[in-house]
């Protein structure tokens, strides 16, 4: 089932997500719905707060980045085949040089800005079967994970841009809060046109 994506300004996007257990109600269905919602909106990642749930869960499928012919063949292949569910994730390390990449967010349509993030991460998480894993990722995969991880910490990519850029996107963010944007996927807005 395709879920509505919560728009910028909704308080759920600012909440630190709660850990969940295997007994979380209808977890498998929620994960399936999140993938379906993400694909419907042409996203590469989606966190539970973006569908209104303040829990530590996000899904990622970087396959669209694997189509970038400017990337080395090996990286294209990795990106094409990276699909993962992260439950109760905990960032252990962010290291290496910071590098910029133009990011967007399904909860903040029509806004894209360069964000600088570390090139390598070490993260601990549980998969859909609640097996605990600790893994190291780098490049675009690390970046997508960092972006989604921020969501479960109540952080948005617009928090990481310069004060000048924040001023420049202020009007666009207000339009999202007021429900005056029309992306080609279902959204739930925080402002006056709630629930549209």
UniProtKB/TrEMBL annotation:
The protein's required cofactor(s) are namely:
Fe(2+)
Known Pfam families for this protein? Pep_deformylase
Instruction: Cite the active-site annotation.
Output: 148
Enzyme class name:
hydrolase
Q: EC number(s) in its UniProt entry?
A: 3.5.1.88
Q: Which GO terms describe its biological process?
A: translation
Q: What is catalysed by this protein?
A: N-terminal N-formyl-L-methionyl-[peptide] + H2O = N-terminal L-methionyl-[peptide] + formate
Check the record and name the CDD domains matching this protein.
Pep_deformylase
Q: Which family does it belong to?
A: Belongs to the polypeptide deformylase family.
What is the purpose of this protein? Answer: Removes the formyl group from the N-terminal Met of newly synthesized proteins. Requires at least a dipeptide for an efficient rate of reaction. N-terminal L-methionine is a prerequisite for activity but the enzyme has broad specificity at other positions.
User: What's the name of the protein?
Assistant: Peptide deformylase
What is the species listed in this Swiss-Prot or TrEMBL entry?
Flavobacterium agri
